[in-house]
Amino acid sequence: MKWITREKPKIDRIATPWLINRYIDSDAEFLFVPFDKVLEKAAEFKAIPFDIPNVEYSHYGPECTFDFVLKKHDLTDPALKKLALIVRGADTDRHELAPEAAGLFAIFSGLSHTITQDQELLRIGFQIYDGLYFFLKHFSQSRHLENSPFEKQLHEVYQKILAESKSKKNSQPKWVKELKGLIQDHLDSQFSLDLKQAAQLLQINPSYLSREFSKHFEELNFGDYVRIRRIERSEELILNTDYSLTEIAYLTGFSDQSHFTRIFRQVKGLTPTAFRKKYRKSKDSSKSKNPSSMALN
């Protein structure tokens, strides 16, 4: 079977052919043509178009073509699911999704500039994905120093010296405070700040920010940290205002009340409605136990 997509492939347009070749059709042939010729050439060569808009094999929401192929062909290998997260993070600039995403983006960004032949890039890309898959399948929990006692000892000495040096400096980089301020400034609006935009505003490398973020933000990734801060802000509004839940959802950056309710329940263990009722019931109960305060009111 022939498959066809845009020329100059990078991350997803190499990962998807690799997945098809390794798990669906080992005789698959992949064609790369200019974007505006994909559908025309697909009809001419009777090839399946992929990774372009308005075709079956493409992106859906935040997910990549690689994700779609996994679901379409019922591929359930845990290592492939891990690989899908890495591909998605690299291909959509959401490097916080997986620690390997930034590296994968860097590798294919460099290769796309040094290799001009698409088929040669595909061949080398297959080798890269073979290696990455094998790592995820067999070695993702291992570390470089585990099998080298001498190197491990040297590394421990180095880490001790480094820790002593860091303890003499501020324990928290300047950008941490600035980023907390940026996030706080965005909480009362339709939250649109992402890690890449934050890195640009802070004038630091996005990959560095992605790697270092959890160390200074409660061991959470960017998305989870922001989600919890938004829920905390929504709690304040529920307890101290008469805004409707729809208004609170909007004010704290959720797309709609349904989305707000789902995330609130995940974080707090009950819905916003139940939370508000519980608070009001507690408040009414405290008033009934203190008649003098009610009289004063």
From TrEMBL:
One Gene Ontology MF term: DNA-binding transcription factor activity
HTH araC/xylS-type domain sequence ranges: 177-278
Matching InterPro entries: ChrB_C, Homeodomain-like_sf, HTH_AraC, HTH_AraC-typ_CS, Tscrpt_reg_AraC-type_HTH
Keyword DNA-binding (UniProt): yes
Coiled coil: none
Sorted UniProt keywords: DNA-binding, Transcription, Transcription regulation
Keyword Transcription: yes
Region feature (Disordered): 278-297
Composition skew (Low complexity), residue ranges: 288-297
PANTHER family named among the record's database cross-references: ARAC-FAMILY TRANSCRIPTIONAL REGULATOR, HTH-TYPE TRANSCRIPTIONAL ACTIVATOR RHAS
Name of the protein this chain belongs to: Helix-turn-helix domain-containing protein
Organism encoding this protein: Algoriphagus lacus
